[in-house]
Amino acid sequence: MSLNDRRETRCNILPHAACRIGQHRIPDKAARTLQLLRSGKWLLCHRRLFPCTSLFMPATLLEWSVPAAILLCAIGLCAAHFVGFRTLQWGAALGCLSIGYAIMLVQASEFSPYKQAVEDAFILCGVMLACRALQSRRCRQTSLYVDIAVLLASTAMVIVSVVLFASAKLESFFVQAFCALVIWRATLSFSRRIATASDKVLTVAFLFIALVLTGQCILYIAAPTPDLALGEWRLSVWGTLIQYTGLLGSIVLTFAVFIATSYDAIEKYRHQAHTDALTGLLNRQGLDSRLDSVFRPAFPEAATPTGVIMADIDNFKRINDIFGHAFGDMVLARFGSLLRQEADPQACAARMGGEEFLLLLPGADLESATAVAEEIRASFVSLRWAPHAPDARFTASMGVTVVEADEPFASALKRADDLLYAAKRRGRNCTVWNV
Ligand SMILES: Nc1nc2c(ncn2[C@@H]2O[C@H](COP(=O)(O)OP(=O)(O)OP(=O)(O)O)[C@@H](O)[C@H]2O)c(=O)[nH]1
């Protein structure tokens, strides 16, 4: 008698009738599994338990195209990391997913239930990594212990579904339900902290994936799906559905990540091009672009009046000469942060070049703009410069005006500049405004 014949015989002598656990009647297949588990011979007979033709049926090229395409997405994202995009974590997530989907196609071995558990663990790990990549943009990440607990719970449910109930339908339902749960949790907590257009793109992609997974779970419960054996299930419409929705989700995610990271990079370089590196204020180019958007002729909300303060640190060349250029840089940086502190958040502060600064105060009339200028001037005088120059006091001069209704901004700027030089001529350390 060959080994296979002996296995067949062992399997055939097992009772086929349904049995009971306590008050609960359990199905034939589960009853047989329990018997086998008790006798410790289930591994020998699992081929009989899961009588599937495709256990020995190699996956087609079309089926392999699913993990291959996901792997390509992962490679693309990892490669993008090396040219400066922050996409490595996303690549790792899709890499994990592609391994999970590849294991799904590998021929089942003697250890088929473990294969299911490993395959599903890779898929869930991929989803968790993607969620962590999303959360790392804005909010606190889910605790690692929570993720491990979810992974263990999912694996336990998968093993129960496979070993006890020999049900691929149940196994798929559990892994998808856990994936959906993890994605919904991350998406909902992230959606409360959306700050940029790229955040919105990623949120929409995650919502789409969460909805697809949830829809699939509902379909699993609601539709009269046949309870197929493990191998048969892969080739059924349900198995195909899970593979292709996985592929669709991965492609949507890859596009969303590329759009979001490209947008982030553009925003980063735009911000750098519009910001003065020393003070963190707008530079000339940044100011022009801000003025373009606020003072466009067709922009009726352009606040009028708008207070304009032109400020200049007095005798700055001497500061450089006496204390050095690095100290001069520090004085500029502290003056810049003073402008930011004293003005309200809607104000627009810019470094016009050298030691000359501009502050725009939307909605401020001449009186309140002058008050702000005086406050800044007084605060600057009172700054202490220990340890480099403990006894030094530095001063600044200010010219203040307002943009009249329908007045071109350039003419108000010229007026503020003239007033600043009037303050210099008056002996510096004072504020001059037009009446
Ligand atoms: N440390 C430092 N110095 C700068 C920077 N940009 C310009 N300067 C210096 O700022 C000085 C400006 O000098 P001036 O235009 O003569 O003005 P001032 O000495 O402040 O004289 P008044 O404006 O008339 O009070 C020059 O010596 C520039 O080299 C910078 O980014 N860092």
Describe it.
Residues 304-435 form the GGDEF domain. This is diguanylate cyclase. The chain crosses the membrane at residues 64-83, 90-108, 144-167, 173-190, 202-223, 235-260. The structure is a single chain. With 435 residues, the protein is an alpha+beta fold. It has three domains: 1-49, no CATH class; 60-271, Rhopdopsin 7-helix transmembrane proteins, CATH 1.20.1070; 284-433, Reverse transcriptase/Diguanylate cyclase domain (Alpha-Beta Plaits). 65% of the residues lie in helices and 9% in strands. The chain has 16 helices and seven strands. It has helices at 3-12, 28-39, 42-49, 61-82, 88-105, 112-138, 144-164, 168-191, 197-222, 230-235, 237-274, 284-294, 316-323, 325-342, 366-382, 409-425; strands at 19-21, 24-26, 306-313, 348-353, 356-362, 396-403, 431-433. A five-stranded mixed sheet has the order 4-5-3-6-7, with helices on both faces. A two-stranded antiparallel ribbon has the order 1-2. Helix 5 packs antiparallel against helix 6, helix 5 (88-105) runs antiparallel to helix 11 and helix 7 (144-164) runs antiparallel to helix 8. The longest helix is centred in the middle third of the chain and has 38 residues, at 237-274. Residues 278, 312-317, 320, 325, 328-329, 332, 354-355, 424 line the site of guanosine-5'-triphosphate.
